[in-house]
Amino acid sequence: PGGLTRYIMSIGKFSYDAQGAATVASGVVWDVSDIKHAEEELSRNRQFMEAVLENINSAVYVKDSQGVYTFVNGDWERATGMRRADVLGKSTLELNHQGRGQEYHDADMQVMNCGEVQTVEETVQSGEQTLTYQTVKVPMRQGGQIVGLCNIAFEITERKLAEEALRTSQTQMRTLVDSIQSVIFMKDAQGRHLLVNDFYEKA
């Protein structure tokens, strides 16, 4: 009716006489349209979310409440060198993750137990390169109960290397300035000192 597809489930049976001829047919019919439509909506929502998670330029995985992988995206596969076909249905304890399986498992279970979003920095060995990620761990709820965890990791390796290079440069500059036996200082537009060297402090 009204262009809406209805779904029917039926069960039937025949009764037979002594000669094996069917004499009575009986059965039950259920309208399961609401269930089917809900399943279709759930499937569409899942497909939409997976499409989003595949294209956010971040390594993403989802686990159930027992710490078992239920989804990983392409960026996660590339970062870890592991295929989703070998990962889904398993936990980090089974996969070991280069000897850090227990560590990763405990970290995720802690987030699910406390029920709060957590942001941390993590390192992953990818071949000969060490990658640094800023990771957001989000407990997933259904009906007030925590049913799993979504982990979204943004690679910040280049930023961390740049920060380290800046710190090294600042340290080198400070060492050089302090080694000069003359007064050196730097002020901002308001006349506040930004830098003074050792000779300035002793003068």
What report would you give on this structure?
The chain has 203 residues and is of the alpha+beta class. Helices cover 38% and strands 34% of the residues. It has helices spanning 33-53, 74-80, 84-87, 92-95, 101-114, 157-179, 198-202; strands spanning 8-16, 22-31, 59-64, 69-72, 118-126, 129-142, 145-155, 185-187, 193-196. It is elongated, with a radius of gyration of 31 Å.
Topology:
Blueprint: E1 8-16, E2 22-31, H1 33-53, E3 59-64, E4 69-72, H2 74-80, H3 84-87, H4 92-95, H5 101-114, E5 118-126, E6 129-142, E7 145-155, H6 157-179, E8 185-187, E9 193-196, H7 198-202
Antiparallel strand pairs: 1-2, 3-4, 3-7, 5-6, 6-7, 8-9
The neighbouring-strand order within the major sheet is 4-3-7-6-5
Multimeric status of the protein = single chain
Q: How many strand segments?
A: 9
User: What best-fitting shape do the alpha-carbon axes yield?
Assistant: elongated
On the 0 to 100 scale, the average pLDDT is 84
Largest sheet: 5 strands, antiparallel
Q: Give unreliable regions as ranges.
A: none
- Sheet-strand content, in percent, reads 25-35%
**How many angstroms does the end-to-end distance come to?**
95 Å
Helix proportion of residues, in percent? 25-40%
Which structural class do the helices and strands define? alpha+beta
Radius of gyration: 31 Å
Please work out how many helical segments DSSP would assign: 7
H and E order? EEHEEHHHHEEEHEEH
What keyword list fits this structure?
7 helices, two-stranded antiparallel sheet, 203 residues, 5-stranded antiparallel sheet, elongated, alpha+beta
